């Protein structure tokens, strides 16, 4: 049961062992014993407790967070038992759908030079991959005259945040519309591309070139989006799973029910997620109606600070098919470098294995995504599982992920000149 008045002190990863001017422990801090540990690359850790990180842009005593942190404390015991059973384990964690991140063993986090902790577990690849089914997404951005100025800035940020939530299993395209439709990357007209890092970065550059003028006619843009999505699915390309249209606009003057009638009803296979940009809500009703009529979710984004939290709401809706099917798929990320976990030969390569967590409460017959659990695995541990005697003298083993990335190979090593960062 959620208790809105719950008062509960937890160990906040940033605040532990911090003292104020008078030498007293700060709230949510407190004394937290840390000892260097060889298995964790001599980092100072606490092997009996986990710590909780909350992104800087969220209130760390928000009732939602405090309640989640409270019940997830039961994980401490599980983490400790797991580690006792399998001492090769390193970090174990739970990323909550509310935004907090519980990590074992307990370790101190330090903000960046601006005093900020940008890490939001819900934006990480392992989280998104585990929480959502693969999806095809067409993003429609209104670039009519009324979007000039701040609204366009917020709209760009919204599109960019949507891109953050897409991963290698997803396909997308972005169409800007006023009285005409403009693919933001004209070379990729009429198709969808995989949401890998290179494609997303490429589209982000094009977003800066958008400018607002003319009048917004949404009907044609919707028809185009439905056409591409339909094409893709019927030819078995794309994710062959869920499909969605994200609509970023400051309002719609019509309901466009004729378009939905033609392309999406009665099955409603394509979900619509309208994001109303700006403080006014004069034209909100049509957008709300579109969301309801197409199994989506309506959000209003008034300021730049609202963007991320609002964008991520759609993930709950898109994870519903997984909840209903009780799919507990494990996902494996591509190999990445973790500079905090070096070995003799330099920073080590890791993969993350993750799994979604659903509420099994009976009153919610659809279930609710609570978050994602995961653990990091050094690739060397996987290498040890290869039966060497079966390979022959010049034989070697390698593995690639289902998205075509190399997971392990004897010659795979980090590029030393690239800036390294911890990426869970
Ligand atoms: C972890 O920290 C708590 C709180 O400071 C302390 O009571 C406990 O002994 C520590 N555990 C270890 C293994 O150091
Ligand atoms: C950790 O520190 C010990 C002693 O200072 C040292 O012998 C060991 O090699 C270090 N381990 C790592 C992984 O750096
Ligand atoms: C897409 O490209 C085709 C031919 O390459 C062109 O005929 C069509 O007008 C383009 N559509 C858009 C919306 O740019
Ligand atoms: C994609 O096509 C399959 C088979 O034709 C159909 O069952 C499925 O519902 C379609 N999915 C969407 C999102 O249109
Ligand atoms: C939930 O409902 C199912 C069947 O309706 C029942 O078997 C199960 O015991 C219930 N679980 C809880 C936790 O009440």
Automatic annotation (TrEMBL):
Residues 136-318 form the VWFA domain. The keyword Transport applies. SUPFAM superfamilies: vWA-like. InterPro entries: Ca_channel_alpha-2/delta, VWA_N, VWF_A, vWFA_dom_sf. Keywords: Calcium, Calcium channel, Calcium transport, Glycoprotein, Ion channel, Ion transport, Membrane, Signal, Transmembrane, Transmembrane helix, Transport, Voltage-gated channel. It comes from the Eukaryota. PROSITE patterns: VWFA. Coiled coil: none annotated. GO terms for molecular function: voltage-gated calcium channel activity. GO terms for cellular component: voltage-gated calcium channel complex. It is found in: Membrane. It is a single-pass type I membrane protein. It holds the Pfam family VWA. Belongs to the calcium channel subunit alpha-2/delta family. This is VWFA domain-containing protein.
């Amino acid at each position: 049961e959620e208790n809105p008045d719950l008062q509960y002190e937890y160990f906040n990863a940033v605040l532990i062992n911090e003292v104020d001017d008078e030498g007293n422990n700060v709230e949510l801090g407190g004394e937290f014993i840390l000892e260097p540990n060889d298995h964790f690359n001599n980092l100072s850790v606490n092997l009996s407790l986990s710590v909780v990180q909350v992104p800087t842009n969220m209130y760390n005593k928000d009732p939602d967070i405090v309640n989640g942190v409270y019940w997830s404390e039961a994980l401490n015991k599980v983490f400790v038992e797991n580690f006792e059973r399998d001492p090769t384990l390193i970090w174990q964690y739970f990323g909550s759908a509310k935004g907090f991140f519980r990590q074992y063993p307990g370790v101190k986090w330090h903000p960046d030079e601006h005093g900020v902790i940008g890490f939001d577990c819900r934006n990480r690849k392992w989280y998104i991959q585990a929480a959502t089914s693969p999806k095809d997404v067409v993003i429609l951005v209104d670039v009519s005259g009324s979007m000039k100025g701040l609204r366009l800035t917020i709209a760009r940020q919204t599109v960019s945040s949507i891109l953050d939530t897409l991963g290698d299993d997803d396909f997308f395209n972005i169409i800007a519309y006023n009285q005409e439709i403009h693919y933001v990357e004209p070379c990729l007209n009429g198709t969808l591309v995989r949401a890998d890092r290179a494609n997303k970065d490429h589209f982000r550059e094009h977003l800066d070139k958008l400018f607002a003028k003319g009048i917004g006619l949404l009907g044609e843009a919707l028809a185009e989006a439905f056409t591409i999505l339909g094409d893709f699915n019927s030819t078995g390309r794309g994710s062959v799973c869920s499909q969605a249209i994200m609509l970023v606009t400051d309002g719609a003057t019509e309901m466009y029910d004729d378009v939905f009638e033609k392309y999406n009803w009665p099955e409603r296979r394509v979900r619509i997620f309208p994001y109303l940009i700006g403080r006014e809500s004069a034209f909100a009703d049509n957008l709300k109606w579109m969301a309801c009529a197409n199994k989506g979710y309506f959000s209003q984004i008034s300021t730049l600070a609202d963007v991320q939290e609002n964008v991520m709401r759609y993930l709950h809706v898109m994870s519903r098919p997984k909840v209903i099917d009780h799919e507990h798929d494990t996902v494996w990320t591509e190999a990445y470098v973790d500079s905090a976990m070096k070995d003799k030969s330099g920073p080590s390569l890791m993969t993350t294995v993750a799994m979604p967590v659903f509420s099994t409460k009976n009153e919610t017959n659809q279930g609710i995504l609570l978050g994602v659990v995961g653990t990091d695995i050094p690739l060397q541990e996987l290498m040890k599982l290869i039966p060497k005697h079966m390979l022959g003298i010049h034989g070697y083993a390698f593995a690639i992920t289902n998205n075509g990335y190399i997971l392990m190979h004897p010659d795979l090593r980090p590029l030393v000149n690239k800036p390294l960062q911890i990426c869970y």
